[in-house]
Input
Amino acid sequence: MKTDQMLPGRRSVLRIAACLGAAATAGLLFTERGSRTPVTRPAAGPRAVARRPVNASAYRLQPMTAYSPPRFRRAMPPVRQRPFLKMSAVGRTMVLTFDDGPDPRYTPGILRTLRKYEVPAMFFVCGEMASDHRDLLREMADDGHVVGNHTWSHPLIPKLPPSRIREELGRTSEVIEETLGTPPLWYRAPFGAWNKHSFEIGAKLGMEPLAWTVDTLDWTEPGTKTIVRRVLDGAGPGVVVLSHDAGGDRSQSVAALRSYLPELLDAGYRITVPRR
Output
């Protein structure tokens, strides 16, 4: 036997060791391919684009759509056939409303009187006025008043096609929502002229229609005392009073509020706003 030849027993031992080493190497590769660390492989073909490995920890921080809470959707009101003329209420409660504003000449005076007696009211604003006086919109909301939709340009609704009605109401709602963060929940047709399309479109925009019980006719400038008398004579549970804070000289409306509001409160009436 030559000196460089291994004994049969020694060759067997080396073969066994080689087999064990191969098996261990194969097992290690299998474990790496099955681990969480991705194995980078060469691109398959000329069009393949190399992708950066995903950061596993960052991915787990992303919200899972299947388990995310559903977005809140406000319930749409039903399509009415007529507006609310008064509010159902318990006891001696009334609602004061002001249309056509906001007007920096008259709206601040009305807000000051309401703030003095700590009572809320409803302001049905026109979009073209609201867009130019957003500070007054914010003041209304900050004082707890309800801001409603009175169309953009105060048109006669029944003479408009549905597309124009949608534009008049939609643009005004957008201004209110952009300014206050929430869309209006109530609307009022100019001149009290409603039609089927206005009820349908108003409901699609999430609004309820509100008319009035007592019309002060303050837009005719009948005099402060006449406006006061009309409000006090028409007072009653659930009554909705219509006045204006824009659209002309409304100094009589501002002065009348200073007079009849304390009298209503002294008579036991609670001035409130509808809730939805």
User: Anything to note?
Assistant: The chain has nine helices and eight strands.
